[in-house]
Amino acid sequence: MTELELRDLRKTFRSRGRPPVDAVRGIDLALRSGELLGLLGPSGCGKSTTLRMIAGLESVSGGDILVGGTSVIDRPAQARNIGVAFENYALYPPLTVAENLAFGLKARRGNARGDVQRKVAEIADRVDLTGILDARPAGLSSGQKQRVSLARALVREPDVLLLDEPLSHLDAAQRDTTRRELKRIQRDLGHTTILVTHDQEEALSLADRIAVMKDGVIQQIGTPYEIYDSPANLFVADFVGEPAINLLPGTVTDDGRARLSDSVHLALPVPVTQGREVVVGVRPEDLSLTGEDGLPARVVAHEPLLEAGVATLALDGVERPLVVLTGPEVRLAHDEQVRVAADTRLTHVFDAETGELLR
Ligand code: ADP
Questions:
Q1: What class, spelled out in words, does domain 4-239 have in CATH?
Q2: 96-134 tens-digit pLDDT
Q3: Which CATH code for domain 246-351?
Q4: ipTM of this model?
């Protein structure tokens, strides 16, 4: 069942004396019941504005928002039954954790005192807050505040859950634990969820599907594997992946290869017209240092890491360095000559002008 649907959703901010800002330019999305969708994109691409429109905290310039098949666009925020956990937690400092959780429930009519207490206790147990129900926000760690914020969004049993950069204020260790907990809680409770993030790792590890956004437009929607393995355009290819994909500009030769320099010609995964300007994309892990075949390259740098190494190579006459993931056992010397090969099945070729993937 489609639980949340956005149809051609738009937002233009207009303020006197300033040019209008088209923050969201016609978004279409459909989330299945229980699905977790990651809305991923750089700062300023319109993620928060989209989230705020769904929550009813921002007016809509065009399009529609449907929850469970019904348009909610004319309903105020409190009548939408959408839970939001904000990046900055938005907890009430004078209230205890229990009071913070109860606050949203009490504001609703028809909730008896006993019901409120039962629901607070239930959600506190789920989100592991039982020991800190009497504490006040100031005394909590960032991870605990994040959980209270999540619990407050969940306690109202929302139809849709919106998470705004939920892990961004946590340190690396807390982030890993909280990420796993978040996934478990979302799975257990089965909420249809949009998670807004600029952090690709967060999106790749948590989301069932990811929508990659740029300049108010969704560039691609797909599972984490689809986004990673088959990026629809240069932006998605470049934005997702760490270390970033190698993007090498070239011109297609008469024998169907991309000419990166006089001496470096790369085979392409699909037939492309001669003379076309392209950008070949190869992920660092899809390149290998080989004994014989492969392109001659010079080692510029090699960073040995725990699980793998990152080698930076120079290809003859090619301006951009090539980044290659090596095995942890590999030892390379500065200026050493090596050969590097790309698996053609795993390379991508994009039109240099439009940035679109050529299939
Ligand atoms: P993100 O969440 O992806 O960082 P936002 O949704 O916050 O992006 O912002 C999208 C665009 O809309 C940006 O260019 C931002 O400057 C602009 N914007 C956001 N809120 C307002 C506002 N209240 N008035 C004018 N412009 C805004």
A1: alpha beta
A2: 999 999 987 876 656 777 888 899 999 999 888 989 999
A3: 2.40.50.140
A4: 0.99
